[in-house]
Amino acid sequence: MAKNGASSMRHIEVTPGDLPLHCPTPAMMLWNAHPRVFLPIEKTGTALCPYCGTQFTLKDGPPAGGH
Fold first, then answer.
1. I want to staple 47 with a disulfide (CB 3.0 to 4.6 A). Which of 19, 27, 41, 61 is the partner?
2. Within the chain, which residues score under 70 in pLDDT?
3. CA gyration radius for the chain?
4. Cα distance between residue 49 and residue 33, in whole Å
5. Could you count the other beta carbons within 10 Å of the beta carbon of residue 54?
6. Is the alpha carbon torsion for 50, 55, 56, 61 positive or negative?
């Protein structure tokens, strides 16, 4: 996972290997973490954590077609 941006809003790009996506991620510091929440990113390619506002983007976007 790569962290991008210098603002207070965090943006993280994830790969299909990171799915199912949850926040906080294993790379985040856990001492001040909110409860784990699973985020649906597969259909749209983006997800926003309702607790901390971290924006997640699926690398190469959502899968094309399929079930």
1. 41
2. 1-8, 64-67
3. 12
4. 12
5. 19
6. positive
Instruction: Determine if residue 5 is left, alpha or beta; phi over 0 gives left, psi from -120 to 50 gives alpha, anything else beta.
Output: left
61: alpha, beta or left? (left if phi > 0; alpha if psi -120 to 50): left
SS3 of 17, please?
helix
Question: What torsion do the CA atoms of 59, 15, 49, 11 make, to the nearest 10 degrees?
Answer: -50
Give strand ranges (E) for 1-67.
2-4, 11-14, 22-23, 37-38, 46-48, 55-58
Calpha distance 59→67 (Å, rounded): 19
Supply 37's token pair: 């929440």
- Backbone phi, psi, residue 17, to 5°: -70, -15
And the tokens for 33? 């973490």
Boundaries of every domain in the chain: 2-28+36-58
**Locate tokens 């799915």: which residue?**
19
